[in-house]
Amino acid sequence: MTAPARAFVIGEALIDVIVRPGGTDEVPGGSPANVARGLARLGVPTALLTSIGDDDRGRLLLAHLTGAGVDVLPASVHHGRTATATATVDAAGDASYVFDIDWDIDPAAVPDRATLVHTGSIAAFLEPGAGKVRALLRDLRGQATLTFDPNVRPAILGTDPAPARAIFEAVASLVDVVKLSAEDAQWLYPGRTPDAVAEHITGAGPRLVAVTRGAAGSTLHAPGHTVRIAAAAADVVDTVGAGDSYMTGLILGLLETPPAALHRLGALAAAAAAYTVSHRGAELPRHRDLETTLRKRAD
Description:
Layout lengths: L6 E4 L3 E7 L2 E7 L1 H11 L4 E4 L2 E2 L2 H11 L4 E2 L4 E2 L5 E6 L5 E6 L15 E5 L8 H12 L4 E5 L4 H4 L3 H12 L4 E5 H7 L5 H9 L5 E5 L5 E5 L2 E5 L12 H13 L7 H16 L9 H12 L1
Parallel strand pairs: 1-4, 1-10, 2-8, 4-6, 5-7, 10-11, 11-12, 12-13
Antiparallel strand pairs: 2-3, 8-9, 13-14, 14-15
Helix pairs in contact: 1-8, 8-9, 9-10
């Protein structure tokens, strides 16, 4: 990378093994890795601290990320296997998931000062790495804008949301921006509406909480102020990576100078997600794709 990182992403990169009745495919994945790749495709100099094995799957991941312009920090590569998430899809299209991941990081591997630091998903919950992620966030607090997407994975977190909720709230109290889906909110806080969850989270410290609702759009909650954003029109092919794409659009808005207003943040995030759902797989937009989608939204 020729330019210092403006965005620093901490989190898992893994291979999605998709098992269908007709065969098996392996594709690069991992929510934080998708966000890092999406930011790089949008022209944001981005560094990633992750955990990738020195095997064929790891080499596939590295090529996927570095090919998009992500600076994968050298400490991200370790001796051993690369993590996988196996999704078995039945004839009806329903999927069940099994994760094979050991999550740990080298907390000393931090790039030169970044403007924004993002984390989330498995990286925020699975030890021993999760505790190191929280320690990094505490160290970087006040030095950069901190963002967090829990991207809840019940297959890893179990059936009782209470322990995961405690971790989620500990991370949320450290960051400036939280993005979560309505499904995340309902799993973490059974019986509460997503709006009530967002209000609760804003009271814990973040200055912005974004809740995505699929085709119903999203809501952006700041203390004393809520903005509702309609989903951008799209011919939906699949929704793989839509939440990660929304996060990249949101981060792009947070990096704008002067800072984007809530409506602009929401529009950027919605446009990014609309581009992704109109393509197969986690295809995240480049800047020109985002601008085209924004123009269509304005017409």
